[in-house]
Specification:
Keywords: Signal. This is Protein involved in gliding motility GldN. Residues 1-22 form the signal peptide. It comes from Flavobacterium limicola. Pfam families: GldN (PF19841). This protein has 297 residues and is of the alpha+beta class. It has one domain (55-133, 164-294). The protein is 31% helix and 22% strand. The protein contains 10 helices and 11 strands. The strands form 3 sheets. Strands 1, 2, 5, 6, 7, 8 and 11 form a 7-stranded antiparallel beta sheet that branches. Strands 3-4 form a two-stranded antiparallel ribbon. A two-stranded antiparallel sheet has the order 9-10. A hairpin with a 4-residue loop joins strand 5 (168-178) and strand 6 (183-196). It is globular and about 80 Å long. The protein starts with a helix and ends with a helix.
Length: 297
Amino acid sequence: MMNVRNLFLAIVSLLGSVASFAQSNLLNAKSPDQIGLKTAAQLISDNDKPLAYGYVHDRDVLMGKTTWEIIDLSERINFSLYFPIDTANVGSDRRSLYDVLTKAMKNGKITEVYTDSYFNTKKSIKDIEASLSRIDTTDAGREQINAGQSVSQEYIMRQDLTAQDVTQYKIKGYWYFDKRQSELKYRLLGICPVTPDVYTMNSDEKDYIELFWIFFPSAREVLHEAKAFNDKNSAMPVSFDQILNSRRFNSVIYKEENVYGDRTIEDYMKDNAQNQLLESERVKEKIRNFEQDMWNY
């Protein structure tokens, strides 16, 4: 009964929040610049926030397991996290998850950014910008340098990582069994875009890197305001926060916390992709079976 009530409340809050963030004033606008403008009554009634996490006492966690997963953006079900990659031909209200994250970091709205998934070392915006851009000179520019001349502007080459270059997202989360509500739950802790190294992105063999890790709870406000495209009903977009918290994506576990220093599945299942996928499913089933076993007497 408790689960049914919680599900009903979640659905009601989801419908109310996405409806309030549909493109406002679209049917009443007299000019394009009026699209998206809310009336005074709408501004007063808007009080939409991310659905708050309930407090969980340590004593209520009967079982817990930290896992790391890969979200492959080439899979169709994950397209809402990838597109749009060309922002010149869409409205300003539609951006990819990568653009939302990087813009919020540059604006100072997201500050909990780290170099790894354990959130040990913070990463400054200068460090991040150095990973996003590459400035180099062409062969003609190097000839000018060797001749003791200043490099002409046309011989300076700049390359930037864009949303198109993001191939995967890595996420870190915590599965736990809440004995108070007698159910298995999941809490997303971190998210990381995986891109080619900006210095190898033009080579045949690209080096893929973890660009940065964001502590997810600190980014929920930003991700709730940003909306992903809903191909079933464009009048009711869904936020990135809702997509990620409700796990509306497909992913593969590539690591679980373990006694071997949290080694990855690839470390002990070498050169066999099929066995790695089977091991990932085994880890997933091991977590799921714990909940099922709680109901066996």
